Amino acid sequence: MDKWFESKLSELEKLDYYKTPEKSKGLKLDANENLALKKDFIKKIAIKAAERQDLREYPLQQVDDFYLQLSKYTKIDKKYLAIGNGSDQIIDLILSVFGKEKRVTTFTPTFSYFIDRCLLYSIKIDKIPLLQDNSIDQEKFIQSAKKSEIIYICSPNNPTGNQFDKELLIDLIKNFDDKLIIIDEAYVEFASYSFCSETIKSQNIILLRTLSKAFGLAGARLGYCIANEDFSHIFKTIIQYPYAINNISLNIGSEILRNSNYIEKTIKVIKKERKRILDSLKEINNEIKVFQTESNFIFFQILDINKYEHILTQLKKDNIAVKTIGRIKDRKGGHIRVTIGTKMMNNKFLRSLNKVI
Ligand SMILES: Cc1ncc(COP(=O)(O)O)c(C=O)c1O
User: Fold this and answer.
1) What are phi and psi of 260, to 5 degrees?
2) Which residues are CB-neighbours of 54 under 8 A, at least 6 positions away?
3) Ligand 1 mean position to 210 CA, how many Å?
4) What is the pLDDT of residues 63-77, one digit of tens each?
5) 129 part of a folded domain
6) Does ligand 1 lie within 6 Å of residue 33's CB atom?
7) Mean of the pLDDT values across residues 174-185?
8) Pairing of strands 320-326, 27-29
9) Which residue, 12, 48, 277, 350, shows the most beta carbons closer than 10 Å to its own?
């Protein structure tokens, strides 16, 4: 008999996969977590959440509480919301259920996990390169999208940090009401606009959100999506696992959402720092090209590839982890994505960079 399992394994072995950041004892500016949030604040919430739990029981009431807080925070009725074990899990479920024999249009560079997940499920994917200023090549994108059933737009985009022209996206969405449009708003709390109101009115948009970034809960694995009532209902009842998120995480999530005023304060601090770092990077010299960002990270290009390597070596020496994006087709040099941390962290990063530039 055909050793189908073995051949499937060797086929899977060849796939690209999402590389989690390296473990680092130094300064972690590589994963876009909210480092401006006080560690103690989260710790207290986590201890309280754990103490209140009886882990012998499956999560039930905790789910309802989380939906209630999410609904209050988003000002969206629960019937439009669905939760997941991080938005990664929601992406995975959407692709595994809706992606079969379909084609996706997105752009590149974008959130690599989404692309890798499409490849895992043998979903064809057409990645239209962003233009040099990180905007969408409208014509090419529309041509490709016409041939696809699914469109993925990361807004703001990871790793480039920018949001696209809203009117352009609204036009695009209007023209493609026969496609499934996934808009990933993992960083929306730092951005200028959301697609929330358009989503609720539509039958074909799924908006992805997470508590991993602005809310500082990357370790709790809490994501959610906003979509039309039918999708949300089917997702909750049929697609999602019965008990996808553990009791403690759900409680932590509810408590954080009750404290959203404090989170908003840290977002303001990050945005202020973002402007300061952007300005400092712009001032350095013409060896660096820094891009506009609407996220809690900055994306920049080092025009000379040797200098790029030199910078990476220096950052490593100083124990600072950043996301190395490397070369991008048709663009010079190498690219780096760096998370905005506290003032102290950001200064450490700038000092390290300045040793080379
Ligand atoms: C654009 C984007 N979407 C989704 C995620 C995944 O978020 P979560 O931690 O909720 O799985 C990330 C995490 O880096 C991201 O950058």
Assistant:
1) -65, -20
2) 247
3) 7
4) 999 999 999 999 999
5) yes
6) no
7) 96
8) parallel
9) 277
Across 70-79, 97-106, 113-122, 279-288, least confident range: 279-288
Q: Is the CB of 223 under 6 A from ligand 1?
A: yes
Check pocket membership of 87 for ligand 1, CB cut-off 6 A. Answer: yes
**Does the Cβ of 212 fall within 6 Å of ligand 1?**
yes
- Output the domain CATH number for residue 279: 3.90.1150.10
Tens of pLDDT, residues 207-248: 999 999 999 999 999 999 999 999 999 999 999 999 999 999
Distance separating alpha carbons of residues 308 and 285, to the nearest angstrom: 14
Euclidean distance between CA atoms 266 and 255, whole angstroms = 16
Nearest CA to ligand 1 atom 2: 186
Same-domain pairing of 232 and 323: no
The residue segments making up the domain with residue 332 are 21-38+261-356
**β-bridge partners, 105:** 126, 151
Task: Report the number of distinct structural domains present in the chain.
Answer: 2
> Same domain, yes or no, for 231 and 190?
yes
Whether 274 and 250 share a structural domain:
no
**Residue 354 pLDDT class (50, 70, 90 cuts):** very high
Tokens 């809706």 sit on residue: 98
Span 339-348, pLDDT tens digits: 999 999 999 9
Confirm or reject: Cβ of 86 under 6 Å from ligand 1: yes
Residue 10 domain flag:
no
User: 157 CA distance to ligand 1 centroid (A)?
Assistant: 11
Rounded distance from Cα 5 to ligand 1 centre (Å): 31
Residue 225: CATH number of its domain: 3.40.640.10
